[in-house]
What we know:
heterodimer; A: mainly beta; four-stranded antiparallel β-sheet; 27 strands; B: mainly alpha; two-stranded parallel ribbon; two-stranded antiparallel sheet; 49% helix; 7% strand; disordered C terminus; WDR54_beta_prop (chain A); WD40_rpt (chain A)
Amino acid sequence: xxxxxxxxxxxxxxxxxxxxxxxxxxxxxxxxxxxxxxxxxxxxxxxxxxxxxxxxxxxxxxxxxxxxxxxxxxxxxxxxxxxxxxxxxxxxxxxxxxxxxxxxxxxxxxxxxxxxxxxxxxxxxxxxxxxxxxxxxxxxxxxxxxxxxxxxxxxxxxxxxxxxxxxxxxxxxxxxxxxxxxxxxxxxxxxxxxxxxxxxxxxxxxxxxxxxxxxxxxxxxxxxxxxxxxxxxxxxxxxxxxxxxxxxxxxxxxxxxxxxxxxxxxxxxxxxxxxxxxxxxxxxxxxxxxxxxxxxxxxxxxxxxxxxxxxxxxxxxx
Amino acid sequence: xxxxxxxxxxxxxxxxxxxxxxxxxxxxxxxxxxxxxxxxxxxxxxxxxxxxxxxxxxxxxxxxxxxxxxxxxxxxxxxxxxxxxxxxxxxxxxxxxxxxxxxxxxxxxxxxxxxxxxxxxxxxxxxxxxxxxxxxxxxxxxxxxxxxxxxxxxxxxxxxxxxxxxxxxxxxxxxxxxxxxxxxxxxxxxxxxxxxxxxxxxxxxxxxxxxxxxxxxxxxxxxxxxxxxxxxxxxxxxxxxxxxxxxxxxxxxxxxxxxxxxxxxxxxxxxxxxxxxxxxxxxxxxxxxxxxxxxxxxxxxxxxxxxxxxxxxxxxxxxxxxxxxxxxxxxxxxxxxxxxxxxxxxxxxxxxxxxxxxxxxxxxxxxxxxxxxxxxxxxxxxxxxxxxxxxxxxx
Lengths: 318, 395
């Protein structure tokens, strides 16, 4: 179903963090941007679709009063909004927002960090663009910060703090049905650290929540009622990444067990049912995968990163 | 990331170091009483009360350089001496062994089981010395107190922090015997032929064997109706060869851990080689995480001071009591290893002699002085410096 393409070499290896791959497709310029986090640095690659041009850039984590920050980055993700695309980078010290090509930092929000370290770690993790002009970021305290993003410029403001969770946020996802004008009942789903089943990856699509667990299971729930639609014994280790191709309903899951799996989700609104079919496996030998994302809305191609690997592996439909 | 990582890193690396030293002491036929003294001295220093107090405080991980310095001091806590090349090799083996254990750890919580395996073995080394045994027991209690209540998300954060620390280390270790201990259910003869590492230094991550406790074997999709009844069951090919989980290991003091990760893989006398080739390319790409201009951060110096505070100063009369341990098969091999080690793989150890004299104070004071000169002002920096010097004076 898919075959391997030529990998993209990256300056540093990927760190073992959830969702450690960001992908943004710039159709008008025939480019795709990729981001991979390595400790306190984000490696960005801009790849032309003809495979001939690659340009690299590195972004550093930031902290107040220090020239070179060593604070570790938890996540880097693209936030596509109708008016503009931003790159959001979260670390132990705060939240940085850049123009999507990484050229300019447009906003910096510092987290409240105590003078001496406490047992509870402080960091931000879980990034999502919501509706037309908001970016939501999760924090280790369990809060979700909601930022208001203007159409252009750097006048981004923190407009609200949601305090529903008591535990560290692990992931946040927007409703991404990809159909403009569709009525959204739920805008956002968030997951946290608490409870016996640890959810580290989450997706919201056409009113269905897809959750990836530390036990290797994937569960599908109806967003509004919480009814369990399906339960998959998907992986033998922790799931590190989930992604959906909104136009085709293809689902991508990747875990520490070296496997990437492609599934197909079908919604039948009449019977209020969701069906899952398994389509394909790819094994990245001897690698704990930490990021896997589709490169386009149909799921025609996807990219993968792994711990200690200095490349982005790509697969395309045959 | 996690501020609770350092105790686990230290105890597990310390445990691996003791396994290796124990094996080398036996391989070199060091007399039993001397060997025992070395092991006892190192273990009692490792579990020094003040040192552990410092270690267990919530804090970020130390830099690689600082941690290496701590282990240098620890290895020299007794009458045993190691040359630079042997110390380098010892540290390579320790770090790669623990990296392997962290990578292959089935559930993040199992890192605690691995730590307990190391602790169990250390207890066994000192079972004849009640005073040191009680130090070890106390540490057990501290570990249980601090870690058994953490949720799996916290353990995963600890594991991720450790993996960032070990990132890009690919030194090849040929210790075939360790595979024997990691897969207890399988035929020994088959697995002796398999490798633990590839020729490029990456560990083999099998897609077979038992799944972690709490995980199901992949391959099943269940779909439900709105009323919760199972409507369909589908099987799919999981691409591996998995079996059901083993029973859970125990987190109490005297129990079966089930996992073999963290147990002594050197208990059979086997020469263990390390190879440097192929790693320098990765090292060049490696971005140093701790690029602080000072060689040691204040906190790291504190730890070092506490460690040295627990050291007994070797008296000059003990010169004939001392001996050298070689991690290689011959002295020539050791010399050759030192010369041929790629520059970017050297650990850049800071040498601080642990002698009870004014020179120590002066050296530490100089390092502390470098802090204030570089402009890193913090309200408590002067008092921390004073505490340090006071502690050295009290030795």
